[in-house]
Amino acid sequence: MASTTSITIGEHRIGPDHEPYIIAEMSGNHDGSLDKALAIVRMAAEAGAHAVKLQTYKPETITLESDAPDFRLSEGHELWGGRTLWDLYTEAHTPWEWHAPLFEEAAKVGITIFSSPFDPTAVDLLEELGAPAYKIASSEIVDLPLVRLAASKGKPIIISTGMASVSEIHAAVEAARSTGNEQIVVLACTANYPADPSESNLRGIPVMRDAFGTLIGYSDHTIGIGAPIASVALGAVLVEKHVTLQREGGGVDSSFSSEPDELAALVSQTKVAWQCLGEPRIGARQQEQEGLRFRRSLYVVADVRAGDPVTADNVRSIRPANGLAPDEFSRVEGRRFTRDVARGTALSWDLI
Predict the structure, then answer these.
(1) Burial class of residue 8 (count of CB atoms within 10 Å of its CB; 0-12, 13-18, 19+)
(2) DSSP label at 324?
(3) CB 132 within 8 A of CB 50
(4) CB-hemisphere CA count at 13 Å for 253?
(5) Which stretches of the chain are DSSP H helices?
(6) Is 140 in the same domain as 193?
(7) Tell me, what's the pLDDT at 79?
């Protein structure tokens, strides 16, 4: 299956030949404050992220106001145990009237902004605002009508795959492709909050790339930046990371989100990881040519006269690399010099 080599979001190309595209996920870490949401946009730009991402829903478009067991998180959930979905999403949602000022702030500070729509009315709002891409959240991957609607806008579509089976991912990718849209990024993801690094299964990244013929990224819910850096080494071209101004009291997702200095480190270190990938070749690099001059070789290390035998006292393996290979000593030992040779002369066959 042919794969897309790159896509464009805003001013940035995304693909194996470009530095990793870093998305700062705001989620509910605005903590109900527009001022804090605007500050997160500015922080993401200052940290060097390429994009900041919102989540666009209302409590009534994502769930029902109900205390029934179906609508309540398990008591044992590490972060939100026992809460109703309505209560959680009421706290975490980004009010629709905030979207325009957030888009304006992003334009002002020079960072791309887009969102995850959770229903058709969210897509309509984001279209009005000129969102340059769409992200499908892990839980929405099975909502194929939503996938098709977002993909039909002809913009890059990023599909997160937490909890999804191979067949479910395939169905979502084909739903997007059915609209004629090939600008697809599939995100490896573990939908656990926070996720233990051991749950990341990053070796699946090249498998996903080959299976679905798309660009592959990584949506990270671990604490720290080790997993995202490793994901780039395995082929992720995009990394999404939840961010907060500070974890202490920083919002509903803050406990597993990156603070400003961590986001900056994520941007710089994933770029380093990508630069380290280089090319699939083995051998001396152009930058190593000077080093090649100073490999070891056989040199005359004491003044000798014609007729003297080659011994370990007058010929040794030293740096630099102009003489015979060190392994040739067993062949030259005991032979006699054909002329006087000064100390510091590279040993060559014509001298013995």
Answers:
(1) middle
(2) S
(3) no
(4) 27
(5) 34-47, 59-62, 85-92, 96-109, 120-128, 144-151, 166-177, 204-212, 226-233, 260-277, 289-292, 329-332
(6) yes
(7) 65
Residue numbers in the chain where pLDDT is lower than 70: 1-3, 77-80, 250
> What are the Cα distances from residue 314, in Å, to 291, 304, 319, 342?
25, 7, 15, 10
- What pLDDT is stored for residue 80 in this prediction? 63
Last residue of a domain, one of 258, 277, 296: 277
Domain end: 277, 307, 326, which one? 277
Query: How many domains does the chain contain in total?
Result: 2
Q: Residue type at 31?
A: D
DSSP state of 259: P
Q: Nearest-CA neighbor of 93 among 68, 130, 125, 131?
A: 125
Distance CA 35, CA 287 (A): 49
**Hey, what are 150's tokens?**
């977002």
What are the tokens at 231? 């994901």
In this prediction, residue 48 carries a pLDDT of 98
pLDDT of residue 253: 79
Cis peptide before 145 (omega within 30 of 0): no
Characterize the bridge pairing of strands 345-346 and 297-300. antiparallel
**Is the domain of 317 the same as that of 264?**
no
Query: Which pTM does this prediction carry?
Result: 0.87
Q: How far apart are CA 223 and CA 195, in angstroms?
A: 8
Please name which of 171, 242, 228 lies closest in space to residue 197, comparing C-alpha atoms: 228
The Cα 327–Cα 182 span in angstroms is 57
Residues 116 and 197 placed together within one structural domain of the fold: yes
What pLDDT score does 284 carry? 82
Task: Please give the pLDDT value at position 250.
Answer: 66
Strand order of the β-sheet with 297-300 is: 315-318, 297-300, 345-346
